[in-house]
Structure formats: structure tokens, C-alpha cells
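Deliverable D4.2, example record:
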Amino acid sequence: MAYKITEECLACGSCIDVCPEEAIKEGDEIFEITDDCSECGSCVDECPAEAIIEE
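Output generated by the structure prediction step:
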């Protein structure tokens, strides 16, 4: 199970703060999840826009 950030991303940064692997980076328009993701799901619970989904 991998996660991806959809276009609903508000670029608020709340997911970055909770990621234990520092696997979320700022992209061109929205944030992106890198291959360092351990699939813990912390970012999913934190996202106010519900923009992080299972891929």
C-alpha cells in the first residue's frame, strides 16, 4: 500500500510536520511523497483536505 497526494492538496504543510521519515517534499504546485515513505499513514490522518490517498 503506497500513498499519493492528490490535486486537492492545499500545500498547508501539515503532513510534513507529522511524517517520521521526512518523505514528503514540496513539489511544483502540491506536496509529493517520496520513496522514503514507510506507509505509516500519519499524513493521511493529519491532512485537512483529505488529499492523501492509497495508491
